[in-house]
Amino acid sequence: MSGRYQVLTELGRGSGSIVYLARHQKLGEYRAVKCIKKEPDFIWKVREASILNRLNHPQIPRFYDMEEDEESYYIVEEYARGESLEAKMLQSSFITLDFIIQVITETAKILDYMHHLEPIPMIYQDLKPEHIILSRDGIKLIDFGIASYLGETGNKFQNYGTPKFCAPEKATGKTASIQSDIYSIGKLLEELVCAEGSHQARCLMQVADKATSPDLSIRYQTAEELLADLSAHMQSKQNSIYQKHLLTKIVAAGSQPRIGTTHLSISLTAYLNQKNKQAVYLEKNTNGHMRMSIQNGIFAEEGGLYRRNNFLGMPAYGEGVSVNIPKGSIEILDYGTDIAGALSEGADMILFVIGSRYWETDFANCAFQTLKKEKNVFFMANYGCKRQARLYHQKYGQPVYCFPLDADPFEMTKEKECLFNGLLEKERKNKKKYWNCRICLREWGNALIRGIGKLCSKRLR
What we know:
The chain has 16 helices and 19 strands. It is α/β, with parallel strands linked by helices.
């Protein structure tokens, strides 16, 4: 490639091509370079360059150049940084209704743009999770190797595509059309709904069924029609797709450094995602624990966010850095020892971690005095020390809950799951007025105590 690019790694392989990540030697910019061997059928494969050259859309990779040598052609295009939808779907706990709506809406709009190009519309023909990249700015649609002009016939691309997502008319040799792309959108919606699994998500199968109908007279004629139907389902009171969690922002803080605030926050984030309530950890302190965890652990980067198993979080980047938080996520803000910052957030719930060792009680006492008049503050005694939690409760007349002694914040244990189940009762059991708990005083209307009272009775005996 004329020495302008340094090949760094292989990104993937397709039919007769290999895609590499390369860096421009002078500009320092990253590029995706598709290498196509000069085999007998290579001519139709390099059509992708002319296809990309016609497309001008922020969610389609930009075409830069095409080069060749004696053996291969090289298509140089924008590198779509992020994780594929295929990889994301392996972690089904991250698939939520809002996520499904976002992916389908953005994908349909990209295809609708192609379907209305002048003077000749285009069809994509190869929609599947592998070709959708989740980037910082939304999704990116990649790999236009078998895209074609509408009505084009007699080309080998008519026989290509992934069978699972291909419209039935392609299998019978008929000419692909806009409705062929609509069918693929419907199959993608099916996959996402099955991954999410809830009753609300299954209501969207009506849209998927119409989009994948073998009868072209029933199938949506355009992506616009599909989006309009999807929007109607979203706004339906019966389906309640826009229903939000009562908890949207949870703040964690602690009475002193190294008291376990980050450990609690990470564990809660992992728990919520495991329960299909999408949550994102946000580091709001300067201790750098999140950044150190990323350097020393195995994380997948997703547009400035980092994922490990059921955990998704963002380190403290400082001012001037913008990262898109998934729409509808519950934010878990880790403020460390910054009590003033924690209170300024106006959160639905503040979890305040205090120590259980003798030399930590003075810090806990100061925290109690500062926070005793604040609403929605729940004290968590660390290290699973039931005795000290009981002493705190007796001294201050309000419940103190035990966060269990725990080695790995990214892994869920039965003890942590039991505790966090109680926290979510604030959403689920807000109509009951009383809960009997021999350790916690009987409270009126306190949803957290109602939900966790039984746990306290069992664990603080």
